[in-house]
Amino acid sequence: MQMASGPDAADRRDVDAMGQLEGRTALVTGGTSGIGLATAVRFAAEGARVFVTGRRQPELDAAVATIGEAAIGIRSDVSDLDDLDQLFAEIADHGHGLDVLFANAGGGAFGTLQDMTPEDFNRTFATNVRGTAFTVQKALPVLNRGASVVLTGSTAATSGTPAFGVYGASKAAVRQFARTWASELADREIRVNVIVPGPTDTTGLRGLAGDPASASALVDQLGAGVTMRRVGRPEEIAAAVLFLASDESSFMTGSELYADGGERQQ
Questions:
Q1: What are the residue boundaries of the Ketoreductase domain, all occurrences included (predicted)?
Q2: What are phi and psi of 82, to 5 degrees?
Q3: Listed residue (64, 48, 152) closest to 99, CA to CA
Q4: What is the tally of structural domains in the chain?
Q5: At what angle do helices 234-245 and 34-45 cross, to 10 degrees?
Q6: Fewer CB atoms inside 10 Å of the end CB: C or N, the chain?
Q7: Which of 12-21, 89-98, 148-157, 168-177 is predicted with the least confidence, judged by mean pLDDT?
Q8: Domain limits for position 149
Q9: Is residue 1 assigned to a domain?
């Protein structure tokens, strides 16, 4: 029997060559470094048009250059509601809506209960909680039916790690958002999930330690507490975010996906 060939085989090759986000539009907030930048690069490689935000223009310009022609940079601070209004107005003007929203912008600092200050508390919750909530709320008019929303959680939300109380509490709030929003947006077939990275070698993580020597010691210390005996790479977390953003996770919503090297399984 002769094997099938011709246009059908060529079509199959074309499908195989397509990226997982081919023809889709994505937004990555906090996309100028670390996990956000790695994810934006991966989304673009998978065929998506990628909007990326950051608070500082030089870093934003550098990120767009790294991501390539598929990237559109918009300077925006998620803790500023006027910035968010402008962000989604610009996205709406492009006329494609959003198929993927990666609400990644966030941050925090070390601080025990004794050392906690109102300023640190307000800054962390303004970005991680308030910023995430209003990013997703203001995205609603441009989210296409069947879109995927991915929020950034943390293993700190499920542990009692000293000096991570405020940061962990803010990420616990993000986890609860996902549970609620998954139910509220189900009628639009919009899925909401949380990516939970373990310690990941980013400039943000190293910056917590201050000087380079202390940063390397911090990375080694955190890696020793992971089952795989190392910290993660931003590209590894980006691969997990891609799974949640794509049709490969079509029966997942309100869930957490741990990409932590086994840290929370010990």
A1: 24-202
A2: -65, -40
A3: 48
A4: 1
A5: 50
A6: N
A7: 12-21
A8: 21-265
A9: no
